[in-house]
């Protein structure tokens, strides 16, 4: 893995902060950090995704801090956090100011809905790529159970994770013993 | 600067920071309750408008706190609100990340990483589904999402070019009245 410069980290996360319309930020981050720049392995990235969802706070805020910290320590965390959050912070308030002078035209609203639909597609890509890396029935079952409990049944995250993570840990431990 | 109002905002958002397990969406309804029902700082319709703006803006959804803060106390309110919402959870994430970084490459952490991977997969699909539900996506949005996913998985086209095409198409359809906003 290559270690990025702080300037490179800033430029990537600044761009992500400006362009990530309509959610799906996890997908955009994965594209840049794992695929395009290979700063992190897929395993490190997806572990970070799970870790950041379990911790309180915005998932993608936590994720960008995690990546900055793992890659460049505390200065990296400050760089990715400020880079990804400062631009949309300014943009969202400017949008609020513009809106207080009257709602935007309909075409703008629908164009943003189109961007949001693309964003969900990018997010799905990140899931699809990760599914391909799961080997064996056990991990696939864990992924399916997690999706069903939280996505479909809308069960609360904390108890679901408290059951699913230990089960997955046991599986992972058994697999590592078998390989050894 | 309306300091008492800014202090009120901090008192609303700081506790939410540490209970937002599973991401920002878990505290959106509590934010609404605090803004509208508890403090009567805005009407429900005003909150819904600001929520819609935050969905349309880039960046994480939790930035709605900046918008709510701005509405009540200007730029200083926006900065205070977002710091109150982000700093406590970020300090915790920092501590967890330092521990993680310290054990990077150890056999134990490799096992933990492999165990977290399938959980992350389930959470990502659940997150995508909740985005689809929240946007009340119709068939056109679902088709756009599916095409985007296919295009990027197969590397058929730059996603940025695809987004430009989608924005133009949706914009034209919206202007022509063929698409209702948010529908």
Description:
Chain A is globular, with a radius of gyration of 18 Å. Chain A is built from seven helices and no strands. In chain A, α2 (25-36) crosses α4 and α6 (137-152) packs antiparallel against α7 (157-179). The model of chain A has no long low-confidence stretch (mean pLDDT 90). Chain A has a domain at 6-112. Helix content of chain A is 82%, strand content 0%. Chain A has helices spanning 6-19, 25-36, 42-54, 59-100, 106-133, 137-152, 157-179. With 180 residues, chain A is an all-alpha fold. Chain B is mostly helical. Chain B has a domain at 1-102. Helices cover 78% and strands 0% of the residues of chain B. Chain B is built from seven helices and no strands. Chain B is flat. Chain B starts with a helix and ends in an 8-residue tail after the last helix. At the A-B interface, α1, α2, α3, α4 and α5 of A face α1, α3, α4, α5 and α6 of B.
Total number of strands of chain B:
0
Structural class of chain B: mainly alpha
The helix/strand order of chain B is HHHHHHH
- Indicate the structural class of chain A: mainly alpha
Q: Could you describe the largest sheet of chain A, including whether it forms a barrel?
A: none
Oligomeric nature of the chains: heterodimer
Could you give a quick summary of the protein structure above?
The complex is a heterodimer of chains A (180) and B (183). By secondary structure, chain A is mostly helical.
């Amino acid at each position: 893995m290559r270690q990025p410069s702080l300037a490179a980290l800033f430029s990537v996360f600044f761009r992500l902060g400006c362009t990530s319309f309509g959610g799906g930020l996890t997908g955009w981050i994965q594209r840049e950090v794992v695929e395009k720049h290979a700063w992190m392995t897929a395993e490190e990235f997806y572990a970070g995704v799970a870790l950041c969802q379990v911790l309180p706070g915005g998932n993608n805020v936590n994720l960008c801090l995690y990546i900055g910290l793992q890659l460049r320590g505390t200065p990296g965390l400050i760089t990715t956090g400020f880079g990804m959050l400062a631009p949309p912070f300014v943009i969202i308030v400017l949008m609020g100011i513009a809106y207080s002078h009257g709602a935007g035209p309909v075409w703008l609203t629908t164009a943003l809905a189109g961007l949001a639909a693309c964003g969900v597609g990018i997010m799905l890509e990140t899931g699809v790529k990760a599914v391909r890396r799961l080997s064996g029935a056990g991990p696939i079952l864990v992924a399916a159970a997690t999706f069903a409990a939280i996505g479909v049944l809308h069960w609360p995250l904390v108890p679901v994770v408290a059951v699913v993570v230990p089960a997955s840990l046991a599986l992972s431990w058994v697999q590592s013993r078998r390989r050894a | 600067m309306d300091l008492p109002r800014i202090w009120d905002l901090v008192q609303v958002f700081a506790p939410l920071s540490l209970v937002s397990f599973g991401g920002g969406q878990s505290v959106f309804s509590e934010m609404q309750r605090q803004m509208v029902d508890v403090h009567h700082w805005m009407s429900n319709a005003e909150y819904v408008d600001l929520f819609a703006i935050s969905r349309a803006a880039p960046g994480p959804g939790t930035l709605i706190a900046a918008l709510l803060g701005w509405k009540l106390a200007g730029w200083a309110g926006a900065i205070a609100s977002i710091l109150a919402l982000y700093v406590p959870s970020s300090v915790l994430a920092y501590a967890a990340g330092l521990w993680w970084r310290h054990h990077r490459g150890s056999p134990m952490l490799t096992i933990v990483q492999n165990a977290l991977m399938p959980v992350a997969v389930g959470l990502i699909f659940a997150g995508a589904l909740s985005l689809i539900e929240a946007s009340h996506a119709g068939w056109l949005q679902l088709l756009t999402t599916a095409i985007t996913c296919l295009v990027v998985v197969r590397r058929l086209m730059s996603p940025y070019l695809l987004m430009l095409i989608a924005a133009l198409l949706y914009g034209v359809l919206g202007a022509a009245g063929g698409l209702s906003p948010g529908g």
